[in-house]
């Protein structure tokens, strides 16, 4: 492991910077913590405003933007081969230096202003102030709350800093492009934050409060159709012929996965109860005329379940539902299809979301997102591979493969068309459930993962809920879901 100097503010460092130091130490790097004496403190008014907002939203955990009394300095005997500057303005050095830029700014304070204004900051990892060697497009889940949005962005600052240092240590940094610069001063940043809050954040918060007073926070509906020939994945538009899976309003159905078995069609869904705030997995059986029966629960755990990917392999039928709130990805075997399932193996530990299976190149692969401890569940793509379904599952050497709200989170099973492989991916640019795209898998092996930029799925057609986030098909049965405005 290389010797690294991590440069942090001497006064009023932030918690996200402390976490970067702790994670790199945990990975075994030879760390020295160096203080930068310049002023890096956020204005008291901004710290107070963010802390008050977190109290309103009942967030009791320490914020990543929270100021600390200090991050203790430490030293070592050997000289550094890399510097990680977490202040943004360390003195020049002959030692290679990685710095983070937030929307072009060297100051992490710009995150608060950008989020307040409704912007979606991009974070660059910059080598020696000249070249971008890593980039993150963080997902912001709660855009009406500046403190929570800033938390999402700073969470991915941690992810990007640690992964860029890891890439440097493994000699696989990729030079991207020249860096752009933004000039800011402390006064304009403070005034800019206040102005952005008054004209952006507060009106958004008011609109969201009014919406939640009248409507369910989220209510998804599943669409289905029976078609011959190409579907949504080929045309990249929704088209016509959709029917809505009925619900009573006190629960919703989402994340549909169809499965054809013994000439019958079954649809597995996330079945979410508004009363309990937790989902189970239910199945819908279609009759010979294509009419759906009543959903019935087939799998329940103490924690939330969703994304019930069902598939056949090795002479058995399996389910791989998402259970990130349970902290593990569990594989289930069908004992009596479609109603009885038994846990077979824990494949991966951690907050893994929407793990999607692919067989390719003589191996099995899982594409998923990993929350990485903080921030959103929808912006950090990780890949695992294994020789067999039960594992062992090995993390890809490039993990995290990308940090990108536009295409990190899978939105359905892989699609094969001839020799090409495609993956539906969620686009969080407009928020969670804002839309889907189709990315082509361009290259995949134990050293490389490469996906094309997603082609957006157009909402043209008769489906009434254009904000979709899942697409699947089995035989003639194609399914989607969309978020609906449902009154309380």
UniProtKB/TrEMBL annotation:
Example of a GO biological process term: xylan catabolic process
UniProt xrefs under InterPro entries: GINT1_N (IPR056442), Glyco_hydro_beta-prop_sf (IPR023296), Glycosyl_Hydrlase_43_Enz (IPR052176)
Residue intervals of the Glucosamine inositolphosphorylceramide transferase 1 N-terminal domain: 251-446
Pfam families, A to Z: GINT1_N
Metal-binding recorded as keyword: no
UniProt keyword list: Carbohydrate metabolism, Polysaccharide degradation, Xylan degradation
Protein name: Glucosamine inositolphosphorylceramide transferase 1 N-terminal domain-containing protein
């Amino acid at each position: 492991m290389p010797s690294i100097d991590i440069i942090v503010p001497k006064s009023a460092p932030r918690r996200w910077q402390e976490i970067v130091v702790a994670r790199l130490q945990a990975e075994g790097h030879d760390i020295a913590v160096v203080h930068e004496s310049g002023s890096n403190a956020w204005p008291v008014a901004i710290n107070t405003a963010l802390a008050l907002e977190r109290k309103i939203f009942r967030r009791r955990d320490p914020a990543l933007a929270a100021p600390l009394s200090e991050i203790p300095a430490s030293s070592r005997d050997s000289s550094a081969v890399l510097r990680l500057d977490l202040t943004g303005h360390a003195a020049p050095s002959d030692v290679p230096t990685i710095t983070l830029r937030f929307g072009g700014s060297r100051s992490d304070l710009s995150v608060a202003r950008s989020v307040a204004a409704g912007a979606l900051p991009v974070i660059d990892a910059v080598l020696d102030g000249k070249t971008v060697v890593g980039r993150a497009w963080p997902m912001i889940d709660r855009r009406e709350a500046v403190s929570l949005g800033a938390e999402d962005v700073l969470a991915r600052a941690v992810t990007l800093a640690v992964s860029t240092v890891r890439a440097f240590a493994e000699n696989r940094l990729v030079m991207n492009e020249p860096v752009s610069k933004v000039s800011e001063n402390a006064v304009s940043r403070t005034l800019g934050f206040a102005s952005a809050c008054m004209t952006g954040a507060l009106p958004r918060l008011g609109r969201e409060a009014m919406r939640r007073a009248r409507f369910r926070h989220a209510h998804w509906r599943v669409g289905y159709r029976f078609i011959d020939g190409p579907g949504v994945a080929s045309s990249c538009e929704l088209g016509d012929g959709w029917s809505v899976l009925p619900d009573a309003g006190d629960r919703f159905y989402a994340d549909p996965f169809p499965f054809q078995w013994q000439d019958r069609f079954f649809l597995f869904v996330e079945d979410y109860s508004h009363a309990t705030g937790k989902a189970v997995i239910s199945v819908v059986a279609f009759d010979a005329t294509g009419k759906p029966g009543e959903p019935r629960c087939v799998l329940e755990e103490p924690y939330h379940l969703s994304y019930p990917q069902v598939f056949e392999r090795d002479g058995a039928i399996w389910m791989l539902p998402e259970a990130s709130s349970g902290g593990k990805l569990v594989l289930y075997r069908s004992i009596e299809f479609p109603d009885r399932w038994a846990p077979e193996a824990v494949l991966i530990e951690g907050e893994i979301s929407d793990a999607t299976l692919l067989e390719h190149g003589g191996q099995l692969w899982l594409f998923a997102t990993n929350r990485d401890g903080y921030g959103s569940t929808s912006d950090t793509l990780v890949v695992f591979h294994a020789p067999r379904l039960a594992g062992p599952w090995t993390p890809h050497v490039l993990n995290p493969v990308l940090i990108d709200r536009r295409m990190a989170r899978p939105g359905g099973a892989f699609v094969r068309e001839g020799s090409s492989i495609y993956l539906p991916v969620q686009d969080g640019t407009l928020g969670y459930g804002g839309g889907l795209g189709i990315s082509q898998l361009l290259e995949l092996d134990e050293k490389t993962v490469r996906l094309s930029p997603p082609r957006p799925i157009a909402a043209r057609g008769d489906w009434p809920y254009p904000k979709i986030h899942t697409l699947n098909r089995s035989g003639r049965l194609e399914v989607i879901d969309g978020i609906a405005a449902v009154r309380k």
